[in-house]
Amino acid sequence: MNTLIKNNLNIDGNILTMNGLSATNTSLVFTGVSADNGNLAITGNFSAANYTMGTINDYLRGDKTWQPVTGQITCTFDGAGSVIPAGLKSYVKLEHDALIKSWTLNGDGGVGSIVVDVWSCPYADFPPSFSDSIAASALPTIAEAKTSTSSVLTAWTITQLSADNYIGFNVNSCASFVKATITLKTYK
After folding, report:
1. pTM of the model as a whole
2. Cβ proximity of 134 and 158 under 8 Å
């Protein structure tokens, strides 16, 4: 059992709910707070003294630091010893809401080029298709290199994905790579 006593707030046991505050083990999850510009505003008897406040996509660790709740969506394209052919490669069903924060592409087979489109559609509209592109004009791309990454997603039409959505990965073009992997870094 973990106990935290701070300004009249006592958490003892595995789960406690009190004025919108729930605690599980040593992680705190705030469910009854308001967000202003991504910062948490906590009202009531809880004081944030000695705590560094995080964003609404963070969780509070036992050492009083905020850590993002991250995940990733990964897809590997394999040309089976040949250059990866263009076309739809895979679908992935999301089990939880996800906010895409960045993408990374890695290629195998020396220096090469690859362009990948990312599609998304709700469960009821499966399968995703070209018209469901969320990357718009900012397609994940490696150009005469082995790897590429970007966290600038301002051109993407959608970065907030809902649980049960499908993500589709389409290779638009590829030169030299016999295998490549795309990873979308997400916040839950």
Report:
1. 0.66
2. yes
